[in-house]
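Inputs:
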Amino acid sequence: MIRKSPMGWNSWDCYGPSVDEKTVRANAEVMADKLKSCGWEYVVVDIQWYQPSASSHDYDPFADLVMDEYGRLLPAENRFPSAAGGKGFAPLAEYVHSLGLKFGIHIMRGIPRQAVHRNTPVLGSDRTARQVAKTNSICAWNTDMYGVDPKKEGARAYYESIFRLYAEWGIDFIKCDDICRELPHEEEELLLLSDCVKNCGREMVLSLSPGPALLEKAQLYKQCANMWRITDDFWDRWDLLYAMFERCEKWSVHTGEGNYPDADMLPVGAILQNADPENRTRFTRDEQETMMMLWSIFRSPLMIGGDLTKLDDFTEKLLTNRQILAMHEDARHAHQVWRREINGRETVLWTALSARGGQYAAVFNLSDEESAVEIPISDLEPAKAPENLLDLWSGESRPQVEVISAKLPAHGAAAFLMT
Amino acid sequence: MIRKSPMGWNSWDCYGPSVDEKTVRANAEVMADKLKSCGWEYVVVDIQWYQPSASSHDYDPFADLVMDEYGRLLPAENRFPSAAGGKGFAPLAEYVHSLGLKFGIHIMRGIPRQAVHRNTPVLGSDRTARQVAKTNSICAWNTDMYGVDPKKEGARAYYESIFRLYAEWGIDFIKCDDICRELPHEEEELLLLSDCVKNCGREMVLSLSPGPALLEKAQLYKQCANMWRITDDFWDRWDLLYAMFERCEKWSVHTGEGNYPDADMLPVGAILQNADPENRTRFTRDEQETMMMLWSIFRSPLMIGGDLTKLDDFTEKLLTNRQILAMHEDARHAHQVWRREINGRETVLWTALSARGGQYAAVFNLSDEESAVEIPISDLEPAKAPENLLDLWSGESRPQVEVISAKLPAHGAAAFLMT
Amino acid sequence: MIRKSPMGWNSWDCYGPSVDEKTVRANAEVMADKLKSCGWEYVVVDIQWYQPSASSHDYDPFADLVMDEYGRLLPAENRFPSAAGGKGFAPLAEYVHSLGLKFGIHIMRGIPRQAVHRNTPVLGSDRTARQVAKTNSICAWNTDMYGVDPKKEGARAYYESIFRLYAEWGIDFIKCDDICRELPHEEEELLLLSDCVKNCGREMVLSLSPGPALLEKAQLYKQCANMWRITDDFWDRWDLLYAMFERCEKWSVHTGEGNYPDADMLPVGAILQNADPENRTRFTRDEQETMMMLWSIFRSPLMIGGDLTKLDDFTEKLLTNRQILAMHEDARHAHQVWRREINGRETVLWTALSARGGQYAAVFNLSDEESAVEIPISDLEPAKAPENLLDLWSGESRPQVEVISAKLPAHGAAAFLMT
Amino acid sequence: MIRKSPMGWNSWDCYGPSVDEKTVRANAEVMADKLKSCGWEYVVVDIQWYQPSASSHDYDPFADLVMDEYGRLLPAENRFPSAAGGKGFAPLAEYVHSLGLKFGIHIMRGIPRQAVHRNTPVLGSDRTARQVAKTNSICAWNTDMYGVDPKKEGARAYYESIFRLYAEWGIDFIKCDDICRELPHEEEELLLLSDCVKNCGREMVLSLSPGPALLEKAQLYKQCANMWRITDDFWDRWDLLYAMFERCEKWSVHTGEGNYPDADMLPVGAILQNADPENRTRFTRDEQETMMMLWSIFRSPLMIGGDLTKLDDFTEKLLTNRQILAMHEDARHAHQVWRREINGRETVLWTALSARGGQYAAVFNLSDEESAVEIPISDLEPAKAPENLLDLWSGESRPQVEVISAKLPAHGAAAFLMT
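Outputs:
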């Protein structure tokens, strides 16, 4: 059982499909050194580690992929040298484990088109790739795979064959792509895939992409996966952060132990997709703090998108605020209390109980101007009048308050623990 | 501020539009005698108290109504004799207050068509009924009123004139009909009406009908009203009760102090709309308990629909279970945890924190067969492992449980307090 | 049987709800004098002839209306003096007939609200207005009437009572409003009303308003009425004329003897609803010719909207082009051939057979620039190669053409008869 | 220019994807012998002539296809022996031409997936199959092809390369599949493909499949193709024939020289997809005549689906009725006049002008019972009163009629020429 919402780093935001072993090791080392003590643990290699010529944020259509004789994709050795000799990701996973961290990989739903066209055998079955492929199921944005048809004999054997391989490698986290929003069409394939992950012999987080997930399928996601993307790719733009408030509101009741609706990676620090010559996030500092508070009270997984080898002071501080990260771990029954205009500023109030006692409140200023808010404690319906109000960012306490007062910068926020 | 979700009795389910003063007094007396000590307090006269010839559950189209020279409706004296001499509902309200209870009335949005066609003056204004009526706004199911056009001069004066009159009478509760689901068309009229209630000089609960309310307008309801119907008229049919689980799930995050999404009246005991010769509810006892547990953990207002003068033992017991009613008062941050099949039985789990400490859990068997469920405490994510589990119906306690076990009859439920 | 698409004049575009008898007579006299010989024949009094205080293009909400003891509306005598003594429109109809023309009136679907609130008896029935009114059926833009509920006893008697009265008056044309687009809700009322018109003892054109009519109800309109509006109110704006091409395309297959989809009145000459100090139409001359050609090949009814007492030379010439009006009378099986870009100009081609032999073609330039078009005769699929091509506007003929060449001004058109 | 609506035979209904050369020759011979004199001329080989192992009505997913070094598909020599030596369909086309007939083939939109995965060069370009394929465009029901991305350099060269090859073979008719209903997504590919057909150096009919075509794209189809399917696959079931009346009604205005909306093949005689041991169509004889009359007055292409080598007497007579086929050739400006209940029988009336003079009428009984209809000639709005009425099936004439009388069997029809 995955008892807390995962925290880690993912290679996509800074390296796209072209990350390599050296980079993964370097980032893992920074995580172990500077972040691990605050709870950060997963190191995840994103898409196309099996594509030798990957070189940027674009995909090379119909590229030749590295795979074994059973149509199972393998790390490209020119990019991941330790995979040589058929070792796959086992050596890299072992290194990450040696740092006290966990190791994850990205996969695409389905079976390589290349395997289907070469008609490779399916391991543990008398069927071939052509016989298990779903003929009209492809990804809209990537040419690597065909879907697998769960009704075909051999389909389960194929999925078993890959997850057993990943278990042998020592994988702790699977980010499965081209599946989360492909419902109801690919529902049966998700159920099969999820079942094979659960029975592969090693505990792995199962993370579903891309979003937005379908709210009416919430129960299915809860049954199949540990986290699922509630949004399309999230980047360092205020309109996307603004829109996340409504997404989190809708999904908040579906968070529970082992189930964490996912607001996507944190585009902080040095990331690729921006115009800044130094590749720094376009989010203001206030916006980054707002993001951390929303993700944390909502208990979204926290996956860092920035390059850890270029970690700056502000970002490090942002990612190691122990009070905020405690809220991420301890928040329970979180929900939006209201969203309303206060003096012309659109304001959002969230609350959650703390598993360690007390109640959290987070207030967000979504307007483009500074705002001074006064929120009666009664809006939060605390079990009893709080004796102390702790400001999570400043660390300051106020006794016996009846009103939460806060000065919020544009796009800024504040979070409190009432005890 | 209305600090708890209202509890009371409403005349509709047993008397339709034809309730009379004698009946209201008799029901109020039973409430004072048998229910008041458990928190029941509102006595509400439903629709068409101003219609002298009302006689059944049907409306008499275009009937002549009793009104004063300003187009304000007055109780029909043949049905409410104490209203004689222009006293309106003041004497009846006074009597209800003398029993330690509160008194409410039903109104229709708008101004009487009769006033418009007679072109009566609007009190406190130089305008007439024709000048404030909204020309194309009528109720789909009742011919009494035209809407009032908030853009017209005199519109506010009209609404002020009626709520001041109700304040003079001593009204504590307004159930305003033909408005809740009429958004966005009648949004401005709702805002005006709500503002006039707030400023009429007497605290009144404002309840909006009919449902289903529009989820996307949740913030507006919260701003304007204390309770709003999340469903069309609810009667003693399992399909309607079954459907309420989804409604409550969606609306749960919009409950808060002073704001109570309303699952409608409780069709218990002796009610009119059924085939039983004794007019007893068609709900089984298990279904009635299920209803009480769902309404209570969700904090829906509890308005009894049955005739209190015919209160039977089972119904009295149902309405006076102190543990359930404590959950109704104390539940906070309630939400559905999951809805899933367990051994083929559709099962729903809710939880809420208690304002007095501890955490509630309620589990519902929506299937047509008996069910034995085992729910790990961890599904509820309690702050700490509970030392005691109190069964709210049986009053029995179990120490240090890790799993909630319950045998649930078809359509039955169980509720617990973990401390 | 109404064997040709009606042609006439309607008071709305220049007088709104406030036309009076003197004006109607004056317009009828001009029609008789200058237009009758070209086929113009109907003189129609539009809405609210029963409202004494009508004075402009706005309605006076809830105004007191003139009606008889059976709730039947009568002409306001202050506006129509010849109606004095209970004569209704009989004297005015007689005068119009004496000019060799026909006389029509506008009515609203339903029964006066005033009759319902006064509860007048229904002639020829033991029922009252309250008993036949449809309780929740009102017009969205006028407060005069309630719908009549065809399921109620007395409903047919009411409609019979009004159409018999109109037959006694000598009415030849009924423009029934608030009904054409009110389907399927008011379908039964339309059927009842239509049946009462057919059986009232006098042949009357039945015209339905307002549009847009519902295409999926085409068969119903054909069964019930002679003409029905395929558009909301049409005024002198190019965007509305542009949009009519698509409407006509869709409705063309529903034209047939006695059934004429109606593109609405012709806002030509002096009309009210414009900014011009002389009240002249804002359409250019080319646009007016385009309108006449489209309406004619499509066989829309032609109802003049302009004030005939202010008829200018251009407008008179426009309305008396005998070749165009022959197309209006003789076109059969008309349909759009194509709509395409020619040299960047959006161009539309229509064709129709002529009941007198030969085939019509009309080509329209919908662009804002002049256009020279060359259309192969084969696009029109004539039965045989035409020997003569007659330009309907210029009257010029061209022999043995294989291509129709035309220079079309912006928003302009040309029409031809191939024989 | 294709001056008349195509008539011919297609291999699909009786042979699915597995037709062979011997069969095609045999069917062509019967056509030349028995049908050619009535206007039948196209012999069309349907899908997967390039798939060596095709054997039934199902597709073999991801099968190996025969193609040349430029990724262009070639006839499988085991099925089409004359294609040996790289001759393609040239010898077979030559044989069909020698019979005085024309030859057509089916193609799928796009480029073979096999070519993309093998990355074959595109003839006449420096690009490869991978570089012109549209990465996320596949057929929903067949695995042979990827779409071609018209924005990619080399895309036009690819389409030119295949149509030039077909021109060299002597192809007269292209049935392009997976394109007709794939709008707007594949609109640009359709435009490119159509342009390459027009410029390939040989006149070819371009037929688009599968349906239903999108009515709002009518102008695009007219611009690009000669015929396009207005329905999904049509088989010998009454519900499908019944539904065609509405389809034809909607599409009738889009018929014109060179443009023929296509109601699909005629499942007559011996066809595969039925339960009959002798493979005879399930349509009754009356239904088959109804189908022929509707297709003909509407001018749908007529493509025989049945096996001509098993042509029975009834079917031969059905396909050689010269009066009906004259209507197919001569009908102009066809449209449905009305669709209404007559004595409880749903009845449809169509009319069209004849290019040889006179006017057609066809009346259809869609009910399950015999029907006697009387239709006033005036419903058809003939140019002048007809002197003669010719019954197209019986060949009988009636003089000077004012009413068309017909006895129609269940699902039966009658057609007439008025002169």
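Remarks. The mean pLDDT of chain C is 95. Residues 21-35 of chain C form the longest helix (15 residues).
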